[in-house]
Structure formats: C-alpha cells, structure tokens
Amino acid sequence: MKSRFCYSFSFLFLLVLYGGTAQGQSLQEYLKKKEKALLESYITFLSIPNVSTDTVNILKNAAYLEDLMADRGIKAELLTGTTPKVTPAVFGEIKTPGASKTIGFYAHYDGQPVNPKQWYAGVDPFKPVLITAPLESGGKILGPYKSGAEINPEWRLLGRGAADDKAGVMAILNAYQALVETGQRLGVNIKFLFEGEEEVGSIHLNEIFKKHKEKLKADCWVIIDGPRHVSGRKTIVYGVRGDVNIELTVYGAKRPLHSGNYGNWAPNPALKLAHLLASMKDEKGKVLVKGFYEDVTPLTASEKKALAQIPSQDALLKKELGIYASENPEQPLVEALMKPTLNINGMQSANVGAMASNVIPTKAVATLDLRLVKGNDYQRQVEKVIAHVKSRGYHVLTQEPTEAERAKYPNLAKIEIEHGYNAQRTPMDLPIAKTIQAALQSTSKESLVLIPSMGGSLPLYLFEEILGTKVITVPIVNYDNNQHAENENVKIKFLWEGIESIAAIMQMK
Amino acid sequence: MKSRFCYSFSFLFLLVLYGGTAQGQSLQEYLKKKEKALLESYITFLSIPNVSTDTVNILKNAAYLEDLMADRGIKAELLTGTTPKVTPAVFGEIKTPGASKTIGFYAHYDGQPVNPKQWYAGVDPFKPVLITAPLESGGKILGPYKSGAEINPEWRLLGRGAADDKAGVMAILNAYQALVETGQRLGVNIKFLFEGEEEVGSIHLNEIFKKHKEKLKADCWVIIDGPRHVSGRKTIVYGVRGDVNIELTVYGAKRPLHSGNYGNWAPNPALKLAHLLASMKDEKGKVLVKGFYEDVTPLTASEKKALAQIPSQDALLKKELGIYASENPEQPLVEALMKPTLNINGMQSANVGAMASNVIPTKAVATLDLRLVKGNDYQRQVEKVIAHVKSRGYHVLTQEPTEAERAKYPNLAKIEIEHGYNAQRTPMDLPIAKTIQAALQSTSKESLVLIPSMGGSLPLYLFEEILGTKVITVPIVNYDNNQHAENENVKIKFLWEGIESIAAIMQMK
C-alpha cells in the first residue's frame, strides 16, 4: 500500500510538475494556444484608467472584474467597510471538495497617478502598446496589439497597471480558469480579493477586514504583487516594509521676487530646502535623523541565511540602471532593503528649464517617503523627522503659515503626513510557508529566491492583525517594470509564468 | 540782460515744473482727461502675448508699436542685426529744432514666460484685469476694464508685461504725445528704441548696435525699466548688474525606480542636488564658491554717499513680504545689491503633491542665476561655479550623460549656460547725469532716490561699449509688481507719474 501510495503521489506530482491534464493538455500548451485571447483581454482591462483617486473609472474597473469573475463561474461580491461611498474590494470564493486548506489570493486593481508628458512620446498610459524592450535599452514601440498577431514573449506591454498590479489580478483569474479549462484538480479552497485603494495606502482595508472578518479567513493569503528578483528567478517574499509619506514645504516671501532686486537678501526657500534635506541624509545615504535606525527587530537565523543565499545582482543592476555605484558601495541591495529609509520622491520650487524665470520662489516642496522595517512604528518614525526639522531651527506647521507666524519665526516648515502603516514579516519556517515554497519550486528548474522582506510596502500587517492570517507574497512581474513611474511595463512571458505559479499553489494540498 | 535771461529761464523752468502749456493745459490735467483712453489703449497692447520666444506674437507686438508710433507722427523702423529672421527692435526719431542734445529712450516690449496655472484663479496673463490690490494683501479682482468706467489710480492692472516692460514703452510714447498734444516744447532730440528680446538676454542687441551704430548715437540713453524704490519715491539708477543663468542637472539611475525596491541603495539625484546646492551657499546667504566675491570694483565716494542716503525700507519690506529676516540680517538690501549673487530660480525632481509617487527620480534640475557687479566677468564667474561642482566630485557635462560616462563616473552634472553679460555703471557726477537728475527732480516734491546700481540686469554695457553712449535708468513702476513671476501688475498711478517723468526729460535742455 505504501509503495502504491507513493507511486500515485509521485505520478500526481509529475502531472502537476509537467502540467499533464485529463485532456492531455499541459498548462504551457494551454497558455500558448490561448495567449492571443489572454493578451487581448488583458489590454481591455488595462484600458480602463485606474488611478486610485479617479473614482469614476475605478468603479468601472470593479465592474469589469465582476464580469471577468462571472465568466469563470465565480460569484463576485463588492466588499466595502463602514465609510460610505468608498472604492470596493472585489471578493470571490471557490470551494474545493475535500480540500483541507483555504488559500486567499490578493492583488490590487488600482494604480499610481500618471503624468502622460513623462511617458514615451505619443503613448497614452491607458492605451497599452507593445514595445520590444525599454527604449532606453534600444527597444522600439510596436504600437497597439493587433488582434490575432503573433506574440513574442520577450516583448513588453506598456501601460499604467500593466505590472503593478493588474498583472496580479489577471494572473490569478486566468490561473483558475486555466485549471478549470484543462480539467485539472484544485487542491485548496480559493478566495479572491482584489483591492482598489492599494496605491493610496489601502486606507479602508482595515474596515473591510473588520466587517468581513469571517468571509476573509484563510490558512494563508498569497499576495501577488511586486517584482520577481532581479535574477529573473521565481521568488517568494515573506515580509514587506511599512511606509509613510511626508510632504515638506519651506517658505520664502509671500510673493515671488525678482532675483535681481531681492536676490542675496530675501530668503530663498529652494536653498533652505536644500540645506534641510542635506542635513537629513548624508552623501553616502546614511539618514542623519536622530534615532532613525533604532527600534529595528534583528533578523532571525533563517532570515540571515536566506539573505546570504540571494544571488547578488548589484553589479548587473548598476550596469542596467546606468549608475557607477550605489549610495553606499559597502552595503549590498539585499542589506539596504532590511533597513528603514528616508527617500526624496520629488522636489519642486518654482520652475526650471524653458519655464524658469529669474525669481526667488515663494516656497519649496519635497515629498519624502519613509520605508519601515519590523520594529519601526510609522508614527514614531515621522516624529523623529519632525524633531529633526525642529532641531534645524524650523517652526513646524500643519497648514500654510499665517501672517503672525511669518512675522514671528525665521524658518517655517509645513509637514503633512499621509496615511502610513508598519512592516510585516512571516516566519519562513511555518508549515504553510514551506508548502507554498514547494508548490512554487515545482514550476521552476532554478531554485527559488527566498526574500525575508521585500523593499516595497503593502499593508500586510492588517492580514495578521485583523484576520489572524499569515501572508506570503509571490511576485510575478519583471523587476524592471517601472512600477509607480512613467513607462510602466510587463514582460509578456512573466504573465504566462505568473499564471503557472499561481496554478501550482491552487493545486497544492 | 543777464537778469532778463534769468527771468526767462526761471519762467520756462516753472512752465516745465508745473506743466503749464501754450493751451494752458497742464500735463496732469491732460492725463486726467485722457486716462480712460490711455488705459484702454494700454490694455490692447498688453493683450498681445509677448513671451520672448513666441515669435509669431512678438512680431504682432512690433507691428502694433509701428502703428502706435505712426499715430504720433513718428516714422518707425524695424532694426535687425546680421542674424536672419530675428525679433526686430522698433526704432524712431524726432528732431527738435535748436536742440543741442539727443536723448534716447529705451524700453522692451517682450516679457517673461507665463505659467497661467500659477496666476490668480481664472486670470489669463494676456487678458489684463484690474485688481484693487494684490490678493495676498486683501485685494480683489475687479475684472476687465469696462470702457469709460472711472479709474482709481490706486488700482492695479494685472497681466504679463504690465510692469516689465510694456509700461516703459507705453510711458515713453505717451509722454511724447502728451507734450505734442498740450503744445509744449521739446528740449532735446529724441530717439526711441523698443527691444523685443530683453527677457532672453538681449541676444541680438549687440548686432543691432553694431549695424546701426550711427543711427543710435545719443548723448545719453535713458532706460525706462525696473521698479522705483520701495519708498515709492522717484528714482534714478546709474548702473545695472550683469546676469548669467546656469541650468544644473544631476543624475540618478536611467529609469525611475520604485523607492521601496531600490531606496537607500540607488543614488537619489534630488538628494545629490540638495547637497550640491547646500555646498554652494551657506544658510546666511554667503556664496561658498571659491573666489566668488573677488574681482569686484570698489564703490566710488559718490556711490557710497548715495547708498548711505537711500532710505532703508528693509523693515517695511520684510513685513510686506511676510519674512521674519533677510538671509543675512546684518546686511541691508542696498548693500546686498552691490554684491555678486548666486540664486536658485527653480528646482525640480520628479513630482510633488498629488502627482508625487514613491519613486527615486532619474534626475534633479536647478536653474540658477548669477548676478554680477562691476569688475565681474560673466564667463569667469560661471567658471568658478563649474570648478566648485568639480571640486565636489562631479564630472561636468554639457549634454546628457552617455552610457560610457554613466559607467565611469560616480557623480554626473550637466551644466548648461545661458547667454550672459556683464554689469555697467555710469558715474553719478557726469554733467548729463546731473541734468537728467534735475529734470526728474522737477516733477517731484520728494527728493529722488539715487541708486549707484540696481539689483536687476539689463545689457547696458552694450550702450557704452558699442555706441560709446552713457546710460541712465529711470524706473517708473511700483516695486511690488511681481515682475518675472505670476500676477505681474502695475499700479495705475505709476503709469501717469512715469509719463510725467519722461516728459520732463524730453523737455530738458
């Protein structure tokens, strides 16, 4: 019996591994056959603008997802929290007879803001086009996909959300459909959750979780978001950093001044901001804000081991990104990502280039983001930055300065905090974590890259704190996808491989 | 004989002083009677967009000026240099029988770029509106001037060029017309020169001067540009600072990076720029670039005396501008303006505010202007800045970095220089300078403010070097005119007073 069982087990395992099906069609064969239809459907999805704050279009995305799910026989439900009129998360559920585990799959359908002028000339971020490769690397724009045309899996699809994170939504729904259509068995109960406010800090996810706690229970939520390791190897990530944004504004005169008539006399807010930012972080990237690196939870032995095994891609990355050195050449990327950061996302004062004029600006603004690791608290971290600004002689405001404040304080800084959240890390040794690892490994000849925490941020602490559920992230897109920026793109073969990865997890027992 | 002569002279002087005319109509009476027509005509002029680089509209301005001059019996001539197809300067000439001196009057009809989004809501910079006062000071927008409506001289006309420097053009032409229409005698031959490229550094004025050297000869060119002293008193300026602009760009990775995945590892160009700018100028406004304050020609005894007599408006200005202190509280404005400066006009890296996203920007740009005083050479001053950037470990480029340069140098800075020019200063004791001073003083009960050099810049060295002619500046507009910036405006009474000032100079002998 034992030997027969083992044989059966091995046979099933091989079926999964090589994608054998009752109909004799492997997942790869299925995907190859359906790739044109899958790409066309994905382009339709990407063509619905999805900037988180564009509520009208966001709701169109949610409605489109309901249709996609209905096509697959999944009854979609729009989950909201207690705040009225907010963007819904789209939920669905599949029960698998005999399954002992429930795995949730999460992705988000909203995207970052777009500034079309910054994208490749002539490209509308919401009218996806194919490119052979990024134009900076010698690629060219092929234009919109023509129905029925051959697809080179090395090409990329360019558009907002193409990688972050409609790719996740697309891969989850199509992995399920692929298993159904090729007649393969599911191993687990499946829950689907597609959020529409991730890029604005998942501001209502806590409400949704609290309100639908029972519905959202699972043995593990698998997050399909973020990029695979730079090596291109399949990747599991066990944690995320927290994140909080700060908008810092410093002030000069109330009105713009002629730089000839007042220069070298009236304070220049751009110079003030330069001094303030320079005081926050040295030229080697070390944050100089007092206590900034305190509170950090040390890494476990497994995490240290995993970090040491991550293939270093620093040299490749530097070449690819066109940089001579990292901020601190002694610190490899994998180590840098395990620390809290302070980063300037953007900076503006009056105008530059053709729009510049000989003025002293009235104010200078920097948008900062603080990434947080396990142990950091986002509010405490922000307080440290505020204390730093004060220590530089600034009176800190939360609103535009009044006349009285202007008359009283030599240095005025407005600090606005956007919603933030803390880091989350799942132990790598948990049984469910190991099962997922094995399932994913079965789809790849190369060994997986196991990352204790990604550099990016998702509000995964909510899964742990409210649902009491572990979380593991399986990123599927290419690392050089320009997520959050202009010319966001996904390499097409990563979509197909992502579908395979998710299908394997859906089949595990 | 002597006494009779003296009597005649005094009589004539009084005529000038009180604006008596053959028709018995004073200049003030004339202006009061004609103010509605003058304002309407000025609004028509301001409604022709005049951004220096907008060639199509710039030529419309030139054509409009030809018409204005023809209306006044002045034969206009479009002067160009040797470069083909460039913006012409509009020239005209009036010979006065018996006059021994020729005075040229210069103003410019082009303006700085506009970013309408930065102007008061709903205002088109080229559709002038009346305001009761700046909105920051509690003023309100009255809307477009309605033909025939009463005019409060304390109101302001808002629009690009309203102060800088269509006000100069308007006042010169209407001063001449006022003298003709009130039947008053001219004392000097008059030349008119209206330039269309001042705001882009008067890039062809040298060619125009060389080509039309004889035509443009005069005993003195009077420049009508810039603001009167903050005290509101009528002002003469004997010099200008030179100016040169630098656009400084520093680089990060070739593509925008997710701040979570690469933050604290990939170099952040916004931070690099902050450090670089902070290294150039300390927090008290002292420029730290090596040798920056060398080369400066010391002030003469007359200049020092004049500076000491300029009423200090520092306290008033600080209040009005909403600043607690100047950059260096020990240095009054009049002293600061006699030194070379380095000023940040604008700064930009990726986006801030609603457009911000969690990226590491690819580059950061600052537009700087260097103001120069007598003794400085603009090329030498720029070289000092370049040497400073190099001393901070930067490889300095004049174009975007190549792949090879990115691979070779840790720090890359592109430095682009815009056309610059040197300072100019006319000795205050010259006879022609004293005559103009007396004429202007005759129009004001308050004593004039005499300024050895204004803070702003005009390419006045060309008048001296090419034409061999002295230059004196008589600014006419209110100091708080927002020139070069959004919400540029002129206080209406300054237009009428400007016309009176210029008329007095046209009547001097």
Describe the structure.
Chains A, B: InterPro entries: Cyt/Met_Dipeptidase, Peptidase_M20, Peptidase_M20_dimer. Chains A, B: It comes from Rufibacter radiotolerans. Chains A, B: Residues 239-393 form the Peptidase M20 dimerisation domain. Chains A, B: One of its GO terms (molecular function) is metal ion binding. Chains A, B: Residues 1-24 form the signal peptide. The structure is a homodimer of 509-residue chains. The first copy, chain A, is α/β, with parallel strands linked by helices. Chain A folds into two domains: 18-240 and 424-507, Zn peptidases (Aminopeptidase), CATH 3.40.630.10; 242-296 and 339-417, Alpha-Beta Plaits, CATH 3.30.70.360. The first copy, chain A, has 15 helices and 21 strands. Chain A has a six-stranded mixed β-sheet, covered by helices on one side. The first copy, chain A, has a five-stranded mixed β-sheet with strand order 13-15-11-17-16. In chain A, strands 5-4-6-21 form a four-stranded antiparallel β-sheet. In chain A, helix 12 links the parallel strand 16 and strand 17 (412-417). Chain A is globular and about 75 Å long. The two termini of chain A are 20 Å apart. At the A-B interface, strand 11, strand 12, helix 6, helix 7 and strand 13 of A face strand 11, strand 12, helix 6, helix 7 and strand 13 of B.
